[in-house]
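Per your request, structure below.
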């Protein structure tokens, strides 16, 4: 019966919660059934048998088609851990060490453990995949031990989550046996790094000492660490290949940043790109097999991962993966990027450093490496010393419209353009002011002059305006600026402006964009045709007439069109109304006088 339950969930792409709903029982009951901890009643067995029979009679062709439709982006929406469940798990873990460490430091201890849990669950999935082919788990583990290339990431026996959680005993060598849980966790991180030398995680997950002491007092007690582990070990929170969203680690980090910032009354200072925005960017860029892509502010590698997922969705039979490259300055973000790259088996590289002052990816001759795609969400309105632009050895600014002011929005667009090859295209998230500042002014604003250059060079494919309150650390509406160095003939000399400011549904604390609206936005942009109150295609001449203001709201009005009447008609109507008013006054006075007489 356990096998039947597993087969039903596999065939119908159901989570345990969804299967529980179909059978009219609780999630905990299904979980206990599948783990053999509870006997199944006769009435429940009949329901399971009936559902199993239905599964067996599903035509294979239909099943394949349905699976293809359900499984967008490689995961089924209904299967993945919900945002609310993820946040509950993380906050439960954070509360375990609350008070033992300052809030901003929580993530330094929680995230590596979360990564190990994710890696371990993914490893278990891959062991099962190999075991299905060779007949037994033991044989699969032995094959993987001899050839680690069979899996994305190898988890040595000492580092399995079942060992970390205490569910399984591990016979440590006497000389290496840990004396505390903190010491065991530190060894676990180091063992994983040592077992996977090709994944460049040294200095990423093994820098935290879970056994550290200060003046003879443990920084975090074993009891507090046990609380974190127990929170992650809850069977509701499985983190395998199909259990969570692709950028789960980035979203987890974002939540912890926001939660700790709220708790301390400070601003989180940085944010990740909402998944909806990331998928709009990736779908419009339409990556092709074998192309190269670059994110100069890659954070957790999330935007690059979405490109790979969209490629897989658009071309399931593609055998040429994208080659993805990212650069990130922040230590925590860089670590997350490395982790995500590992988890998604990505071909490419991630480097740490400031991409404005020191871009890492260059050719052998020292020139900037160029790509088919650039995708990025840099910090908005970031101030830079103008000397950086003037003394740039790669001429990224001088050759692409000149030097901007202190704000770096258009400097980042210039970095994107300079990083594209002759057929390249780009998508950059910016503050809305980036496409309006300086327009209408009598003075020559530097940002406007750069916009003018990009428009005149016909490099701007379009601009999308998003709803307000979509990004975590600001209520401001963001925009995406799309570049294309090889526009199709029907789009040359034109700029597509799309106002998606109303395409949202309310959420707490932030708004969201539905999957239907994501498709509506992407398809309308790709079509590049005027749509009332949604899309306006302008010419270079139109942009010039509007002083290079490229805000979609400038050209697309969402209000109902006002109608105007002739003044003589209005005066005639007023005269009629005045006459009616006088007549009603006389009748009212007559009624009042009659009442007074009585």
């Amino acid at each position: 019966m356990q096998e039947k339950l597993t087969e039903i969930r596999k065939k119908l792409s159901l989570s345990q919660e969804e299967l529980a709903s179909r059978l009219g029982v609780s999630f905990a009951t299904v979980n206990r059934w599948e783990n053999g901890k509870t006997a199944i009643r006769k009435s429940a067995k009949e329901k399971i048998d009936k559902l199993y029979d239905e599964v067996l009679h599903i035509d294979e062709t239909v099943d394949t088609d349905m699976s293809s439709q359900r499984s967008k982006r490689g995961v089924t929406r209904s299967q993945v851990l919900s945002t609310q469940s993820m946040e509950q798990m993380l906050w439960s873990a954070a509360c375990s060490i609350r008070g033992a460490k300052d809030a901003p430091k929580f993530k330094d201890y929680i995230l590596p453990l979360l990564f190990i849990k994710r890696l371990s669950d993914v490893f278990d999935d891959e062991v099962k995949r190999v075991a299905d082919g060779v007949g037994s788990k033991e044989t699969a583990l032995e094959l993987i031990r001899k050839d680690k290339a069979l899996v994305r990431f190898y988890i040595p026996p000492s580092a399995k989550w079942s060992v970390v959680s205490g569910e399984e005993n591990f016979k440590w060598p006497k000389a290496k046996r840990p004396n505390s849980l903190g010491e065991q966790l530190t060894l676990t991180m180091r063992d994983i790094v040592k077992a996977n030398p090709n994944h460049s995680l040294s200095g990423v997950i093994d820098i935290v000492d879970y056994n550290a002491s200060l003046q003879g007092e443990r920084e975090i007690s074993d009891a507090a660490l046990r609380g974190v582990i127990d929170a992650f070990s809850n069977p509701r929170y499985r983190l395998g290949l199909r259990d969570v969203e692709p950028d789960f680690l980035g979203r987890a980090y974002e939540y912890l940043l926001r939660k700790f910032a709220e708790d301390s009354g400070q601003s989180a200072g940085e944010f990740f790109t909402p998944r909806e925005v990331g998928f709009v960017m990736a779908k419009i860029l339409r990556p092709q097999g074998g192309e190269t892509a670059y994110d100069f502010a890659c954070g957790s590698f999330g935007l690059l991962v979405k490109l790979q997922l969209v490629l897989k969705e658009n071309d399931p039979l593609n055998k040429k993966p994208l080659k993805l490259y990212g650069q990130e300055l922040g230590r925590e973000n860089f670590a997350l990027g490395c982790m995500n790259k590992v988890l998604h088996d990505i071909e490419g590289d991630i480097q740490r450093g400031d991409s404005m002052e020191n871009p890492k990816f260059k050719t052998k001759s020292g020139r900037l490496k160029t790509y088919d795609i650039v995708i990025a969400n840099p910090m908005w309105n970031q101030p830079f010393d103008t000397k950086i632009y003037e003394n740039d050895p790669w001429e990224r600014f001088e050759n692409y419209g000149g030097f901007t002011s202190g704000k770096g929005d258009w400097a980042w667009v210039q970095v994107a353009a300079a990083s594209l090859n002759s057929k390249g295209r780009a998508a950059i998230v910016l503050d809305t002011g980036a496409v309006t500042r300086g327009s209408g002014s009598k003075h020559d604003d530097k940002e406007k002059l750069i916009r003018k250059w990009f428009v005149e060079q016909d490099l701007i494919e379009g601009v999308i305006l998003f709803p307000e309150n979509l990004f975590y650390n600001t209520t401001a509406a963001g925009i995406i600026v799309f570049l294309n160095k090889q526009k199709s003939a029907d789009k040359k000399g034109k700029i597509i402006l799309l106002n998606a400011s109303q395409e949202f549904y309310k959420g707490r604390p932030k708004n969201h964009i539905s999957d239907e609206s994501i498709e509506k936005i992407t398809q309308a942009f790709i079509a590049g045709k005027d749509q009332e109150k949604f899309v306006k295609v302008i010419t270079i001449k139109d942009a010039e007439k509007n002083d290079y203001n490229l805000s979609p709201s400038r050209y697309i009005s969402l209000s109902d069109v006002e109608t105007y009447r002739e003044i003589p008609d209005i005066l005639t109507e007023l005269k009629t109304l005045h006459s009616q008013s006088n007549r009603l006054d006389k009748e009212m006075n007559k009624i009042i006088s009659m009442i007074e007489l009585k």
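The CA atoms of residues 194 and 337 lie 19 Å apart.

Regards,
D.
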